[in-house]
Specification:
heterodimer, A: alpha/beta, Rossmann fold, 13 helices, B: Rossmann fold
Chain lengths: 310, 282
Amino acid sequence: MNDTVKKATRESYGEALASLGEKYDFLVLDADLAGATKTSTFKKAFPERHIDCGIAESNMTGIAAGIATTGKTVFISSFAMFAAGRNFEQVRNSIGYPHLNVKIGATHAGITVGEDGATHQCLEDIALMRTIPGMKVIVPADDIEAKACVEAAINYEGPVYMRFGRAAVPVIYDENYVFDMDKAVVVREGKDVTIAACGVCVASALEAAEMLAADGIDAEVINFHTIKPLDKDTLVASASKTGRVFTVEEHSVIGGLGGAVCEVLAEENPVKVTRIGVNDVFGQSGPAKDLMKFYGLDGEGVYKTIKENL
Amino acid sequence: MQKMDNINLQITATKVRKGIIEAVHSAGSGHPGGSLSAADMFTYLYFEEMNIDPADPRKEDRDRFVLSKGHNSPGLYSVLANRGYFPVEDLKTFRKLGSYLQGHPCMNETPGVDMSSGSLGQGISTAVGMALSGKISGKDYRVYTLLGDGEIQEGQVWEASMFAGARNLDNLVVIVDNNGLQIDGKVEDVCSVYPIDKKFEAFNFEVININGHDFGEIRAAFAKARETKGKPTAIIMKTTKGKDVSFMEDKAEWHGKAPNDEQYAIAIEELDKKIAELEAEG
């Protein structure tokens, strides 16, 4: 992990759309947030393929569905709160039920939205989206993975939900990284405890693992970039080896990665799981870094929770 | 180009109404009222107006139809069956376990259904998407969507209308079935939607008010819609809920209720009589 290089995954999203625009034929829709979701980067390169629908996310979702029925691939973007929250039923019925080729690029997810506060910090989107049959749910950890998942989404026939962040996060992978939607990535091997993480929290988990190592605890860190479908084999193998699992995410502890991990392990190999996330409360305003610390989601917070519960 | 005269359209519409009654009676549930009020419109669209081919339901350059008021699936299924997309006999499987005729339209189950719909307010947005896609690709297909007058209480309808008007989607026709009734009673009592025409005008639509049971007026409306350039068309059609089944006419209670065996027999008898009269006239 190169701590000196940081980038917000929403930036990566916009760049990926722009760089893939030549290779693939797709449209990009936004709802008056192009500058923030970074679809503006695509708009600069392909203005005629970018459509601003105005502040009407539900209608944008329906428009995307209608376009998709005519054989085109469509991306829609807004903040996660609106793309998944306000839009849940439109996504379910107009995109999910007919299994249309619409890719949802949701930015500003989780508490790292920061100063905007609770109304805009979506902590429920993973839970909502993964209940929709046929929906893929991807939470990339860094710049490289974010770009890779955009191309993977294009190559998958059907709906995909991608969760991007507002705040800059450390770049974990290098250019040789190969993204496989069906395969979680063991980013650090260990034998004593499993830390399952996604998104910005993969970096926190890696930091925590270093601190644990100093205490003689050998942690395995797995990046579950895809929450649905969850890579059961990698999870169960690691849980069998370590016998203890922690999950880390900037999402509610209800229904997100933690929920998905518990569902699999309860059925396949019951080991104790501790879910580290936002504990069934709304967020609040503050700089992203301070919020990560406040909610115990930075490296030190994750380290402390693991030490206390191990 | 005229394919059928008005008498033959009326006969066909009455057969479509029979299919609605068959489907809903067989299912023991469903929505006859609004299906019957829109039966003439369904008939005109599928037998006269739209460029479609029942032998090739997914033909790329076909005109598209979205039943935004998806609960009127009996009307859509009946017209599709009568038009030759699937056997009329299959209408009796409507709403039954394993049937390809789901309670609300499913594009992946039923030949001829262009979009899954039923959650009110969403269908019009998808129709707008289809129309926009046609414009982007330089295709000349047209897109039609049918909404209930109660449905336009949904805010998404106006998001979609604002976009369609702002984008000058003249390949889009929004049809509102103004039968005046919704589940809880009269539209004007529940939450008045009037004036409907002024609202669409304000969103840059060409608005045409017609009697939705008069094929001459329906024909003229679509001719005008085709001539309209630079903006979408809204056809507001005044109709009678439950049209042509005497005991269902203008009764909110028949919004979503199936006839019992006795009522079914009366309804079929009335519709058969109407067909015989029309055939004698023709």
